[in-house]
Amino acid sequence: MITTSAPSMLRALPAEHRQRLMRLAREVTFAQGTRLFEEGGRADRFWIVRTGTVELDMRVPGRRPAVIECLHHNELIGWSWLFTPHVWHLGAEATTPVRAYEFDAAAVRSMCRDDPALGQAVSQWVGDVLAHRLRSARSRLLDLYAPYGAGSPG
Q1: Cα dihedral across residues 105, 20, 73, 7: positive or negative
Q2: What pLDDT is attached to residue 3?
Q3: Is 152 inside any structural domain?
Q4: Which CATH number characterizes residue 127's domain?
Q5: Count of the separate structural domains present in the chain
Q6: Cβ atoms of residues 101 and 50 within 8 Å
Q7: What are the φ/ψ torsions at residue 139 (nearest 5 degrees)?
Q8: What are the pLDDT digits (tens) for 12-55?
Q9: Whole-model pTM?
Q10: Rounded to an integer, what is the distance from CA 6 to the centroid of its chain?
Q11: What residues make up the domain containing 64?
Q12: Which is higher by pLDDT, 141 or 128?
């Protein structure tokens, strides 16, 4: 399993931008086993984990969903909300009880449009998370389904 984490909002955004975003946050909880979203569903919100663990998974035809990454404290759950067509590319499930900050995607996108510096910072942060998730997905799928794993020559 991939253990390195994507950049957290705390590390990625200047304090002023974090504070503005946090004004839009709503505290939520998810019971263990709750599906936060499904691949292909409408991406209209995102979360920052406060406590607990969320697994990101990917549908694989003819197999069980492949777990791509485990998310923990201060990590972003969801990036599809920022990019059209605003449809989830992965699924997510709480594997422990989770407390998180929830953000309305439309409100954050509007705030980013109104403040280009904030928009650029958020786009860079989410883009970095996206790049990390793509690397994680590639490595994990190779580990699961390639004949010799990700690190072995073919």
Answers
A1: positive
A2: 40
A3: no
A4: 2.60.120.10
A5: 1
A6: yes
A7: -60, -45
A8: 788 899 999 999 999 999 999 999 999 999 999 999 999 999 99
A9: 0.84
A10: 9
A11: 9-145
A12: 128
